[in-house]
């Protein structure tokens, strides 16, 4: 038997934090690619500490539903799962290349395939574009549309910004948007000044966050000037400084993100058959009304 | 595969020895034994016994459930007393439904339509006698995730084992696998750790080890002193706050005095909520005490004690609006605030007197 475990942050305060993990887990459950699919959380239950023992499978693929490589993927998750032999160097990553390592967990007799985070997988670029499609209702964009990929940005973890630049660069090369820029909440270039960085009339703003919460629902809309008070809401698009801003909310809530989770496991050797194609077909465009 | 086919196949293979039923193939036929029967049978006669409770019971556990040595199987067996009670007694109980409690859940096992099969119903224990038609019914275990996320007052439940399960719902007509999945969503990992405890292999991580392995903002929790750890466990881990039975202590040789609780399932290490709370307690405990001088009437002192008690015991919603005889009543409390508090706080005494000059400017400690 083989199992997939999606590990997310979760929250003691925000009940919606775990929602993307549940949704993507259900999509993958329905694909039938795994005998067991479980969600586990740092701040909710089952905890990383206890999740492996809830599985009957002896092959387990663990995919972090996190945006960047760093503290959680390199320290917290391996430690809490008791992957005692994990060494971040085994990932041989410069910040966006973590793939997978195969390890034993100290408390269960199982083989654990520990994967890199969904946020740095190549396919996440497609999810960002899909998120832009969902919020605008457009299949194609052209030169009049710009895309801003928003990251948290933090001086404590340089990889946090790397993931944002990585996808911005990839999407720029796709040539789907007139302009593509990486912007941040806590470092330059700042999301507050997003309209300064674009010549395009329309700007689609996609935060590279796993779930919606304080940052994506309150800070970013207010920082960009979509609203003075997030509680009063805002239009999609909202006109700001002569641009139309299409704000999408967290990319991790896009149904297609389930595909990235599955691809992470497939990259680690999980025999998922045609589930990748099935999930992509099911989730592509599944959230066209996301701007509501 | 029919029960009769499975019975003959198993007898021809390794024989059966399960829950009072033994079947073995011999030179003279099949030796068939239960507490009520001892016979040597032909294959045709053996098939005639396929409707014996002992046989259908064996079929259920070996063919429908399987999973030897798994927590799932052990839990389902425990639900109907499978290791303790003879088959006829269990079957009689299943006729009307056999109920056991798991935290705030009541799980009821009944006979299913197929021979030997069981069906499971799970709901809040307070709703055990409610007519199912009056409850919101579900059959997909995944619905439990959303259902138990909020309590009856729509408050978010970050701790799954807090005794605040919402009421008014039931999962009905579940098979064994779906029942265990439902339990796993309501009370994650409780079945797995309960099973480990029964098998003598529960790996308890005590506070000292859990605190030591914390990093980042939680790295400070190992500074929490002995008394404060006791208070923290009393605050967070007793039965009124969490239904897990605390098995961890300060360390292996230093037990906490706080009652462990009477829960069916164990708590094998301090949870993330406890660690997060411990971080705050640690920072609070860094402050030195100070002497403050202010006046209260005896009734006012008791009222403050009432307010602390009402908040700590989550009774504030139970205190009636006009019940001014309760110290924690809202009007009583507003009266106390109007009388005894000003911009400097209780009895006009600044929290940090050194930050206040004579004209009453506030300091910045917030």
From TrEMBL, chain A:
One of its GO terms (biological process) is cobalamin biosynthetic process. Transmembrane segments: none annotated. Keywords: Cobalamin biosynthesis, Cobalt, Lyase, Metal-binding. One of its GO terms (molecular function) is metal ion binding. Signal peptide: none annotated. Its EC number is 4.99.1.3. It is an enzyme of class 4 (lyase). InterPro entries: CbiX-like, Sirohydro_Cobaltochel/CbiX. This is Sirohydrochlorin cobaltochelatase. It comes from Halobacterium salinarum (strain ATCC 33171 / DSM 3754 / JCM 8978 / NBRC 102687 / NCIMB 764 / 91-R6).
UniProtKB/TrEMBL annotation, chain B:
Residues 199-280 form the DR2241 4Fe-4S iron-sulfur cluster binding domain. Gene3D superfamilies: 3.30.1360.190, 3.30.70.2320. InterPro entries: DR2241_Fer4, DR2241_middle, DUF7348. Signal peptide: none annotated. Residues 342-366 are annotated as: Disordered. It holds the Pfam family DR2241. Residues 87-198 form the DR2241 stabilising domain. It comes from the Archaea. Residues 4-66 form the DUF7348 domain. Residues 355-366 have a biased composition (Acidic residues). This is Uncharacterized protein.
